[in-house]
């Protein structure tokens, strides 16, 4: 591992368990003095110690991973970059703050030594940005300047809250995944032939009858795909649904009926700000259960490994669509049985992100949109075709990305449909396990396209595709000079 001094994390773990140093040392088979030195960052955290922590305490070693530290570093850079510029000069590798410069060394130290504080700061910044955005939106509707006078902020958007909730859990809900796998076995669900078993479970366990309703039926007006009427015990499904979509809707309804207490508890534990957000969280959790039910963890992971994570082949084996497979692949983070840690994203033509999940250190910027050089946008120019890309982030990490468009028809001539591009990516170290790496030179740094998290936080000042100047950097204004890259910045003086 890259970062070996993790005394604060170990001390926090011990305090959470209510254990003394002596008790923890005894449980791990270490001397109390040796454990004390680790906690004081006088000795490094070694792999044998990590394995003992996992074996004796059942703690996921991912808690001590440098991947999580990298996520925190990226998030803190996002926070600090979003501060008003100061008069203080910005040195190399630093982030401009309101009063002084914060160096990357300080940011990394905070992420490594006090991860809980780092996450708290990121949470405070998120709420701050949400408040400002609501105030600005309210001000625009009112047509005045009251948004700048410190009025009360509107609550955060429920969809954003729920999205962040899943992102914070690395898109893996262990309790739901385990329950779905048990249910799939008990109900004898078979890939591609799950509908009969799902319909039978609804009828026998819940007295629910499934009725297929046409597009003109009043009960499913407005493009609805599923409607459950508990008063009469009928689940209406749209007739235009494909088999995989029908199974997903059936499985989602079963999630609400079978897992109600779990969904309610998880939504409450999420500490969301509004009843609407909690209800949306319940829907997201039910959808999670549905995906895990149709693609049970162990069977799906084994198939993914056998097929070298070939998305289309997995879709054929389990009878689901391209996006469903991508989403499920981003969930395979069960301790002791992890798949490739993927990043999943879905965007529209305008660059709006409607879904984003990461099981790794990859960080999605909240400021200024995503990078236009990313192949997820190139996919729109080649509908239905898989496009690959080696992309290198400003921190030097390289990723293999796979992107493709997904489309849902409106069902009739002139009816609007949905068109998105979905992308799945992984760190270059995992790329050899992925079939899409065939024919790519994974060792040549020049083969990777330099991209960033978003223009406003991107460090690549020479990028010709830049849409905004980087936050915290002074733009160099020189009427005598023209550059290909827009928004050239003032370079820090050496010394």
Topology diagram in text:
Elements: H1 7-16, H2 21-28, H3 32-39, H4 47-57, H5 66-81, E1 94-96, E2 101-103, H6 104-113, H7 115-142, H8 158-168, H9 174-186, H10 195-206, E3 209-213, E4 226-229, E5 234-238, H11 243-258, H12 260-269, H13 275-294, H14 297-306, H15 311-318, H16 322-329, E6 333-334, E7 337-338, E8 342-347, E9 353-358, H17 375-378, E10 387-392, E11 398-408, E12 418-427, E13 449-450
Parallel strand pairs: 3-5, 10-13
Antiparallel strand pairs: 1-2, 4-5, 6-7, 8-9, 8-12, 10-11, 11-12
Helix pairs in contact: 2-3, 5-6, 5-7, 6-7, 8-13, 9-13, 10-11, 11-13, 12-13, 15-16
List the defining traits of the structure above:
single chain; 495 residues; alpha+beta; 434 Repressor (Amino-terminal Domain); Arc Repressor Mutant, subunit A; 6-stranded mixed beta sheet; 3-stranded mixed beta sheet; 41% helix; 13% strand
Strand content: 5-15%
Question: How is the quaternary structure best described?
Answer: single chain
Please tell me the CATH architecture of the largest domain by its name.
Orthogonal Bundle
Lateral strand order in the biggest sheet: 9-8-12-11-10-13
The biggest beta sheet reads: 6 strands, mixed
Distance between the termini: 33 Å
Rough outline:
globular
**What structural class do you assign from the helix and strand content?**
alpha+beta
Tally of helical runs: 17
Are there runs of 5+ residues with pLDDT below 50, and where? 86-99, 144-153
CATH fold descriptor of the largest domain: Arc Repressor Mutant, subunit A
CATH class of the largest domain: Mainly Alpha
Order of helices and strands, N to C? HHHHHEEHHHHHEEEHHHHHHEEEEHEEEE
Helix share, percent:
40-55%
> Rounded to an integer, what's the Rg over CA atoms?
25 Å
Number of separate structural domains: 4
